[in-house]
Amino acid sequence: MHNSVHHMDKNVRKKCLIPGYRSMDDSVSSTEEILPPTIQKLMKGYNKYLRPLFGNGPVTVGMSLDIASIDTISEINMDYTATIFLRQRWTDERLCFDGNKSLSLDGRLAELLWVPDTFIVDSKKSFLHDITVENRLIRIFPNGTVLYALRITTTVACSMDLTKYPMDRQTCTLQLESWGYNVKDVVFYWTRGNQSVSGLDHLQLAQYTLEDHYTSESEAVYETGNYPKLIFHFKLKRSILYFILETYVPSSALVVLSWVSFWISQSSVPARICIGVTTVLTMTTLMMGARTSLPNANCFIKAIDVYLGICFSFIFGALIEYAVAHFCTLHQPNAANAYMYGQEMQEREDEMNGIVTSIGSHTLRVRKREEMLSRMGSASNPTPSESKEEINSSQPQTRCTKCMSTARQIVRCLNCCKVKNPHYIDNYSRLTFPLSFIMINLLYWTYYLYF
């Protein structure tokens, strides 16, 4: 009889603690049994399925963040992974009690209370730490304020503009929204403005330095209504020292190495070809290695691609320079035939001059004859057909003269462009290649660092 009464009394206590209770597992029942008297009094008549101030306006939820670490920032996946402490505060008048001290409860008791349905908007994958127990904290203050803290590791999408990579700056965000409650039910706010996010001063990142961070409040507009949103912005600047040592210095050294061929004799064909081909292949390998850490589907050209393309052009240009110089050496007339070559060119020029002179004298005679005929027009009037024939015969000669003059000018231009001594090509390259490379470097670094 005594056992049955005790059993009935236990069931009555369950129903008093949680109204509307129908069926719960043994673990929850045992948890309720060991609640202290103060909590049992608070939970009496409490319904966790109804938010605070239900039907009397929205409940305000204040939030703050503590960034424990930012582990990975991936350009390939366009995301970052961070471990954060999310703290939420709200006031629930149903949990008011007498006293001047707060009550710290086990995190597992969160299942008995109403908590905001906050989620991370751009999260790809998140999890709540549960070693050794779920990392949750609940603290209730006498005025009914509830502090609810979580430790979460999340991978969040971050849209990146890699046009100036690796001299780029990225702005990533962490957005918090309410899943089911709109702005008429729940209002989010940062508890201390920009100071609501802490832990960034001691944060160490692998390739980035944190430039600035700030918070903002907004509303998310969906088809189902407007929902409260809190946004944490942080700006990152990439450290370029690693890329200077890894990419920029080796590529510049390869360009300088390709200039060594300018000081090697043109007769040393294997040596110059070996330097040119080796530097081209090494530069190609360096370009392929620089793109392994970047997304393959990007359609924009990055700053590092531009610099590697410039270096490859100079290396390839040095190889083409030797091909041109060697070609001119093979087709240059030797010393024995230089005199005959000059005589032949002189004879051709004299012949051309004679042709032009004879054509010019013939044209002069035709003009004099036309003048005489015009003067004697009163005495003997030539028929129109005869004068027309003379004019037509003079026109082809005038056109021929113009064509010969044009051909002569073209020959002179070709003679001016002809390289008299192919060894001068190397001498010019020793000066033009380094100066051009220095000028392009100045323009490149000025544009990407200051614009």
Write the layout of secondary structure elements.
Blueprint: H1 2-17, H2 26-33, H3 37-43, E1 59-74, E2 79-91, E3 103-105, E4 118-120, E5 123-128, E6 136-140, E7 145-157, E8 169-178, E9 186-190, E10 197-198, E11 208-222, E12 225-238, H4 241-258, H5 269-290, H6 303-330, H7 338-375, H8 384-417, H9 423-450
Parallel strand pairs: 1-9, 1-10
Antiparallel strand pairs: 1-2, 2-7, 3-6, 4-8, 5-7, 6-7, 8-12, 11-12
What does this structure look like?
- The protein is an alpha+beta fold and 451 residues long.
- It has two domains: 41-238, Neurotransmitter-gated ion-channel ligand-binding domain (Acetylcholine Binding Protein, Chain: A, Distorted Sandwich); 243-450, Methane Monooxygenase Hydroxylase, Chain G, domain 1.
- It has helices at 2-17, 26-33, 37-43, 241-258, 269-290, 303-330, 338-375, 384-417, 423-450, and strands at residues 59-74, 79-91, 103-105, 118-120, 123-128, 136-140, 145-157, 169-178, 186-190, 197-198, 208-222, 225-238.
- The strands form two sheets. Strands 1, 2, 3, 5, 6, 7, 9 and 10 form an eight-stranded mixed beta sheet that branches.
- A hairpin with a 4-residue loop joins strand 1 (59-74) and strand 2 (79-91).
- The longest helix is centred in the C-terminal third of the chain and has 38 residues, at 338-375.
- The radius of gyration is 45 Å and the shape is elongated.
- 17% of the residues are buried.
- Residues 39-239 form the Neurotransmitter-gated ion-channel ligand-binding domain.
- It is a multi-pass membrane protein.
- Heteropentamer, formed by a combination of alpha (GABRA1-6), beta (GABRB1-3), gamma (GABRG1-3), delta (GABRD), epsilon (GABRE), rho (GABRR1-3), pi (GABRP) and theta (GABRQ) chains, each subunit exhibiting distinct physiological and pharmacological properties.
